[in-house]
Specification:
The complex is a heterodimer of chains A (107) and B (120). Chain A is mainly beta. Chain A has no helices and eleven strands. Helices cover 0% and strands 50% of the residues of chain A. Chain B is an all-beta fold and 120 residues long. The chains are: A mainly beta (107), B mainly beta (120).
């Protein structure tokens, strides 16, 4: 199975800050990576697919990059409504696996 | 608007069975792969299972293989997860999610989840 790691596991930043999360795969997954936002008690939400494509309706302050085994997710200007846990997921090979998540809160 | 509504969760004893359902609307259900994902208390998301649009092919996480069965009824726009030989560590919120036309792809839409508690 492909193992996914994320860093950091949590972070605290100020409103307006640039926030970056990294995700690493245990083997080459090409571009087959998505990012999700999950708020407590809510349905997870797809933000980014195929490593860098922004899902329709998602604010442009969210972005993704990378390929192969190393990927990054960036919030260019953190907003209060961005408080959530963010997960990467690979869909290059079954079983599709999630990273452990990164919890983002406001300093 | 895509809507996915899970049901069937509840309290069950270890070794017991439960069948989850997910009612889908707002899209052409029969043309999309469908997934189940779970989140145990205090833990992250765990992918559980996928079924192709036709229902012909399925796959499972190692943790549930041989105990859980995913299926779908395209005439009723409904996804199912039959869970047998349940264990305490199967306790989680179970989400159904809409994939894309092929089995490998992002999970575009999610339901609100249904809670399964396995306890004696």
């Amino acid at each position: 199975d492909i193992q996914m790691t994320q860093s950091p596991s949590s972070l605290s930043a100020s409103v307006g800050d640039r926030v970056t999360i990294t995700c690493q795969a245990s083997q080459d997954i090409s571009k087959y990576l998505s990012w999700y936002q999950h708020k407590p008690g809510k349905a997870p939400k797809l933000l980014i697919y195929d490593a860098f494509n922004l899902e329709t309706g998602v604010p442009s302050r969210f972005s993704g990059s990378g390929s192969g085994t190393y990927f990054t997710f960036t919030i260019s200007s953190l907003q209060p409504e961005d408080i959530a846990t963010y997960y990467c997921q690979q869909y290059d090979d079954l079983p599709f696996t999630f990273g452990p998540g990164t919890t983002v809160d406001i300093k | 608007e895509v809507q996915l509504v899970e049901s069937g969760g509840g309290l069950v004893q270890p070794g017991g069975s439960l069948r989850l359902s997910c009612a889908a609307s707002g899209f052409t259900y029969s043309t999309y792969a469908m997934h189940w994902v779970r989140q145990a208390p205090g833990k992250g998301l765990e992918w559980v299972s996928v079924v192709t649009s036709s229902g012909a092919s399925t796959d499972y996480a190692d943790s549930v293989k041989g105990r859980f069965t995913i299926s779908r009824d395209n005439s009723k726009n409904t996804l199912f997860l039959q869970m047998d030989s349940l264990r305490v560590d199967d306790t989680a919120v179970y989400y159904c999610a809409k994939g894309i036309a092929v089995i490998a792809g992002p999970l575009e839409n999610w339901g609100q989840g249904t809670l399964v508690t396995v306890s004696s």
